[in-house]
Every structure is written in C-alpha cells, then in structure tokens.
Write a structure and sequence with these properties.
By secondary structure, the protein is mostly helical. Helices cover 67% and strands 5% of the residues. The protein is elongated.
Length: 137
C-alpha cells in the first residue's frame, strides 16, 4: 500500500497538469517525492501542502522566484510574513501603476473615437488622417 498521492491524483486534486507539478519539482519548489518500486512518484501530505501554497501564492500574483524565496525562508524556520507583506505591497503598487496607465490609454482612445465621430458625421476628409496625424501615446 502506498502512503500518498500519485502525480495524476495530485494533478486532478488541484486541477493542474502533471507537467506543472514536475516543473515545480525540477525548480525546487517541491522536493523530489518518494518513489514506488516501479518508480512512480508518491507525493506526501507535505508536498500537497506546498503545492496548495504555491497555487495560492500565484493567485496573489507572486512569481515562482518569490514563492521559492518564501518557501526557503520557511524551510529555514524563518517566518516569511514580513517578506510576504513587502512583496504584496510591491505588487499593489505595480497594479495601481498599471491601472493608471490603462486609464490614461482609455482616455486617449475615447478622445480618438470622438474625433472619428466628428469626421464621420460631417464627412470631413479621410478618417485615417486622424490616426496618422497624432500617434497614440
């Protein structure tokens, strides 16, 4: 009797591919699992917990490098809470900046659209001149 999950079972449990699990193993996010006599991977409860953490951290937008750093801190009995907090603060700032850039871009598109409406409604020249006259910033 085996004690743990086969890679296919783990894959189904978390709805990810077996290739992803092998990749996480290859880059050191998950320790190499025990093997059966026939060389099948058997993942422990600890592996399952790490995979759950990896997937949750990815949902927060953390990179695999960031996740690996947090796992390493935790493996060295260092609580990674402060480090996680600073990572999330950085991601929040990045998201705010991206939102601002998208809002600026939206404003530019609205302006262009309104210019096109004037041209189309008044049959004033070639529509493409508006696009050619000013490049989008």
């Amino acid at each position: 009797m085996r004690d743990g999950l086969l890679i296919g079972d783990l894959s189904k449990k978390f709805n990810i591919t077996t290739q992803s699990i092998r990749y996480y193993e290859r880059i050191g996010l998950i320790n190499p699992p025990k093997r059966t006599e026939s060389k099948y991977r058997i993942y422990s409860n600890e592996d399952e917990s790490k995979l759950r953490f990896i997937l949750q951290a990815k949902q927060f937008g953390l990179s695999l490098d960031d996740i690996k750093e947090l796992i390493n801190l935790s493996s060295n009995n260092i609580r990674p809470c402060e480090h996680l907090k600073s990572l999330l603060e950085r991601y929040i700032r990045d998201v705010i900046n991206r939102i601002q850039k998208l809002e600026d871009f939206r404003s530019q598109l609205i302006d262009r659209y309104e210019q096109l409406e004037v041209v189309v409604n008044h049959n004033e020249g070639n529509i493409c001149k508006i696009i050619e006259s000013e490049s989008l910033k």
